[in-house]
Design a protein that fits this description.
Shape: globular
Strand content: 15-25%
Largest sheet: 6 strands, mixed
Number of domains: 1
Number of strands: 6
Number of helices: 6
Order of helices and strands: HHEHEEHEHEEH
Radius of gyration: 16 Å
Amino acid sequence: MQVAREAIAGYYGGQVDAERIIVTASTSEAYGFIFKLLADPGDEVLVPRPSYPLFEFLAALDSVHVVNYPLVYHGCWSVDFEVLASRITARTRAIVLVNPNNPTGSFLKKAELARLVEICRRRDIALVSDEVFSDYGFEEDRERVASLIGVEELLTFSLSGLSKNCRPASN
């Protein structure tokens, strides 16, 4: 298992110590571990909408409630921070990102990450980023956040998957 963690650390350019990497069978399993770690039954996680529909099912397995926050479209998709902030309660344990988002394809921007970090730090909640398709951007974007790897200001989780990252190179 150590060899696998070291290979994953290498994939991230050494930005994360191999000892901080946990290998699971799937991101679904990883979400289960994260929900158990962060939340008690009845606690909440904030999840973007539109987004991948599996979160409600995974959270329910651990008696965690999903509270949606909207992504809005104004020429590009972005987090509606006013609504997101209004949905944080004393039971909120994490904000979940899907980066890039499924189904919108939008990536988190640096300015959005800065705002999310501030919100999470102020409220002492974790930031969880599903980065399974992070390598699939259509074009370079200097404002795009590829990963939360390296964000040290608060508790973060970056989830990815070998089934997507170890694809054969296209011709």
